[in-house]
Amino acid sequence: MKKSLFVTAAMLTAATALAACSPDAGKGTASGGTEGGNNASSCTNTITKKDLPVVTMWGWYPNTQLVVDNFNKQNNEVQVCWTNVGQGGDEYQKFQTAISAGTGAPDVIMVEMDRIPTFQIQNALVDIKKYGYDAVKANYSEGAWKDVSVGDAVYGVPVDGGPMAMIYRKDIFDKYKITPPKTWAEYEQAAQKVKDAGGPNFGDFGSNVAAVTMALQIQKGATPFTYDPAQPKSIGIKLNDQASKDVLDYWGGLAKKGLVGTQDQFTPEYIAGVINGKYATYISAAWAPGYLTGAGVGKGKDTGKFAVAPLPQWDAANPVHVNWGGSAFSVTSQAKNPELAAKVAYGIYADDASLTDGWTNQIIFPLNLKALKSPEFVDLKVQFFDGQQANKEVYVPAADGYKGVTYSPFGQYYFDALTKQISAIIDGSVSGAEAADRLQEDVVNYAKEQGFTVQ
């Protein structure tokens, strides 16, 4: 099983779609050496406390240089040697090579939370629960810890997340006398009203953001995967339950009626559409304002035209909060001193100065409760939203309500397979329900090929 999974994991690519963990993640460039690994001689940063032990680290946050310098200045037990070997898929490919070779990995690595099971099943990450978890447990929510855990074991320290919401154009809503829909039924009604009046697409159903579809299915009540590392050859897969079918049929129906577009997101064409008012809403995560700002949205003639509202619900009386994206720092099994590496993982990007720099510059949506609950963050008047207190009104409540999910050990294959089925829905060759059945068959067969027993 693991040998086959190694091959699959090695194919991790840019399907991370901006990593959904940091709006400017792609701006990092590898420096100070192309591989890094456990070689502390190729640091991007300068270590000044040369008499202390060194822990090597890979990461791609745009402000990692500042974060590492802050950690090293404040710490008298260990120093961090940081190297940026690339963002998302680029880093994962290098990490996979190091896993297969049994050498070349850093002590600590930044990973997106949904990738943790892929590396954990290969014994590439260390359970850090015994290395100081109790001392920092209260700093993060239950949902944040669940996203970095596999079973009862903890394989990362959460840094940023992506509680989901609905960004909308105030000018379009005002023109067509639309109020932010509280339910998905109201969303469709508003979309129809705008279309009937000759208005723009109400939203977008892009095939290249399968993680969004997964989150919306979970919001409806789906549980795509159940996995317990105590039974590593067994996995539960439920991708064609009624909730999953309902969501695919819902969005497929919106697309068929011409109420939403079907443009791939994170493309110049999509961004141009957002800037030009082609879409009334954007279903996305808390990192989206930073991403959109960096892409040129909300400037010039678009200034002050955007606002944000809670994600529409299937049952307004029983709201379910979901998440898209987020990253953590994990300790690799090649770490020379796992306990010292865990100290870095727990402490890096956890000081007030680094967290404040991260959220004020829209690099992260912080999961550390010191920042998440701070009055400065909660009461922030967000410039992109024309001074709206978006954190207080929308994103913090969504983060507080998020309960976490269970990811699969072959998440990339699942997302690729879901992308293929969404494309089929868009081109009209299958219904949402049919796509769900095909997806179930595809992923179950794949899991069995990898040696899993599917429950």
Automatic annotation (TrEMBL):
<keyword id="KW-0732">Signal</keyword>
<protein>
    <submittedName>
        <fullName>Sugar ABC transporter substrate-binding protein</fullName>
    </submittedName>
</protein>
<dbReference type="Pfam" id="PF01547">
    <property type="entry name" value="SBP_bac_1"/>
</dbReference>
<feature type="signal peptide">
    <location>
        <begin position="1"/>
        <end position="19"/>
    </location>
</feature>
<dbReference type="InterPro" id="IPR006059">
    <property type="entry name" value="SBP"/>
</dbReference>
<dbReference type="InterPro" id="IPR050490">
    <property type="entry name" value="Bact_solute-bd_prot1"/>
</dbReference>
<feature type="region of interest" description="Disordered">
    <location>
        <begin position="23"/>
        <end position="42"/>
    </location>
</feature>
